[in-house]
Design goal:
ABC_transporter-like_ATP-bd, globular, alpha/beta, ABC-type transporter activity, three-stranded antiparallel sheet
């Protein structure tokens, strides 16, 4: 039986413009006379994820993990290379992405759902479930700017967890909020990713999480893929490398 790929990434390159540490005014005045430095965050990586597979990505801060995830979600445009999602719907669970601060939590549920590709009617059907899971009480009808970071995290998690897409991208937020909500969110996420039809990519520093939940682990280092394979040997090599460097 031919294996189906949910995600195919080929020769992906992503860089950032890095203006020198002078004033914005000076940079604008001299923009045509100097080339802005560019930091290459992802350096020509290629990989694929099978339908229903759970891929974990690990690596030290600045290695390109979150940049890769943001490119898959369509937030960043690559300099070159291709990303093929084979027509699958995709959502990114990353704290700090996507909310309008002046809008209420309830309004942000609708907005976020529509940005994920759901119709307003589909989002409304799930709204009560999202509100109940988020446990925000009366704050759901208050502007998001009044939320604590924990409340913000709860709402972001609840929207992505309840509005299920074919592909879920999870950026280091498997456990959010207070201790009770952390347990609930972790159990919910385990339930979601155990669905054989759902493809998941998890970026995390937690070795235990990646070993327990993932089918495959990809170790990124300085914008490149250092190793990809079964979780245990990849994580052991990663730990050994980090202890020596």
């Amino acid at each position: 039986m031919e294996e189906k790929h949910a995600i195919e990434v080929t020769d992906l390159v992503i860089s950032y413009q890095n203006l020198k540490k002078t004033s914005i005014k000076k940079n604008l005045l001299h923009f045509n006379r100097q080339k802005a430095d560019r930091f290459v965050a992802v350096k020509g990586i290629s990989f694929y994820v099978r339908e229903g597979e759970i891929l974990g990505i690990i690596g030290k801060n600045g290695c390109g993990k979150s940049t890769t995830l943001n490119a898959l979600a369509g937030i960043f445009s690559p300099d070159s290379g291709t990303i093929d999602l084979h027509g699958h719907s995709i959502s990114l669970l990353s704290i700090g992405v996507g909310f309008q601060r002046e809008m209420t939590g309830r309004e942000n549920i609708t907005l976020s759902g529509m940005l994920l590709g759901f119709s307003e009617e589909q989002v409304k059907e799930k709204e009560a479930e999202i509100v109940e899971f988020a446990e925000l009480g009366d704050f759901i009808d208050m502007p998001v700017r009044t939320y604590s970071s924990g409340m913000y995290s709860k709402l972001a998690f609840s929207i992505t967890a309840i509005l299920e897409t074919d592909i879920m991208l999870i950026d280091e937020v498997l456990s959010v909020g207070d201790q009770k909500f952390k347990k609930k969110s972790y159990e919910k996420m385990k339930s979601l990713i155990s669905n054989k039809d759902r493809t998941v990519i998890i970026v995390s520093h937690s070795l235990d999480t990646l070993e327990e939940l993932c089918d495959t682990v990809m170790w990124m280092h300085d914008g490149q893929i250092r190793r990809i394979g079964e979780p245990k040997p990849v994580l052991e090599e990663y730990v050994d490398f980090m202890e020596k460097n």
